Amino acid sequence: MKIAYHHIYTHPLPADHRFPMIKYELIPAQLLREGAIEPEWLFAPEPATEETICLTHTPGYWAQLRDQTLAPRDQRKIGFPQSPALTLREIVIAQGSIDIALHALSHGIGLNVAGGTHHAFADHGEGFCLLNDFAIAANYLLHRKMIRQALIIDLDVHQGNGSAAIFAGNPNVYTFSMHGAHNYPFHKETSDWDIPLPDGTDTSTYLSLLKDALPTLIDRVKPDMVFYLSGVDILETDKFGKLKVTPQGCRERDELVFSTLQRLQIPCAVAMGGGYSPQVKDVVNAHCETFKAAVEIYGY
Q: What positions does the domain Histone deacetylase occupy (predicted)?
């Protein structure tokens, strides 16, 4: 197994943004402490190249990130003040998603400790997302003709609006988003298939909807690569999620996705996405369960 991880997650951020980001340090530490993963599975990606980034993002937007020329209003929309370190963080995360996707093509699955920056559009960032790592990875593989058909399964509580917009009208990437109907972003884009969930959706209802959707989705798209965004902001403890999914239900969601793809031998690249429970241990534990489910189902 290959797990993308590096040490520049928190320090580029202002102090008031570091609490939700500390999970990126704690997840691998907990997995190693529990013996759930092997140290040699972790690797540090290099930064993505400009050529790779501009397969997805406009050269003008990339230049603004590179040269630190984002307007104040654009920084406010992203939610972070610009900094060279923050841009570096994003391009390393993007390369991490490319690397784990390449690994998945030959080994079934790869995971990124970060990623899932699905609110980034081709020409601007939103919602704490500067660059769209899954879009960059999908376009990288498509450009090199390593895959013909990609599927994004986005189970973060927030709609993947950036991904939907980037791939609108692109028959080679199918976007599926199951998300809170009344959650951010308040203006939704149109994915190829959206399942908006009412506030208070419980575990049983959530899993039933996903179980019904997955076979139809796979049959409709026939992907040879899946990008799975496994956000844990669906948890009942999440302060922004508005859903009522239990930790066990979140684990069962991951097991359902992984077992389906493993059985059909469809490669899967996984990014963590969001998680904003007030107790960071609830977030870290839920993300760690995603890794444990992958290890068990894929037989590592």
A: 19-287
Kindly give the pairing relationship between strand 3-4 and strand 268-271. Answer: unpaired
Which pair of structure tokens corresponds to residue 89? Answer: 């963080």
Sheet strand arrangement including 173-180: 42-43, 3-4, 109-112, 268-271, 225-229, 150-154, 173-180, 193-197
pTM recorded for the entire structure: 0.95
Task: Give the integer Cα–Cα distance in Å for 86 and 83.
Answer: 5
Query: What's the pLDDT at 22?
Result: 85
- List Cβ neighbours of 259 (8 Å cut-off, separation of 6 or more): 297
Q: Categorise residue 166: left if φ over 0, alpha if ψ from -120 to 50, beta otherwise.
A: alpha
Note down the domain range covering 178. Answer: 3-298
The pLDDT of residue 16 is 46
Tell me the β-bridge partners of 228: 153, 270
Q: Please work out, in degrees rounded to the nearest 5, the angle formed at the alpha carbon of residue 117 by the alpha carbons of 112 and 55.
A: 95
Domain count, the chain: 1
CATH code of 290's domain: 3.40.800.20
Among 268, 192, 204, 274, CA closest to 234: 274
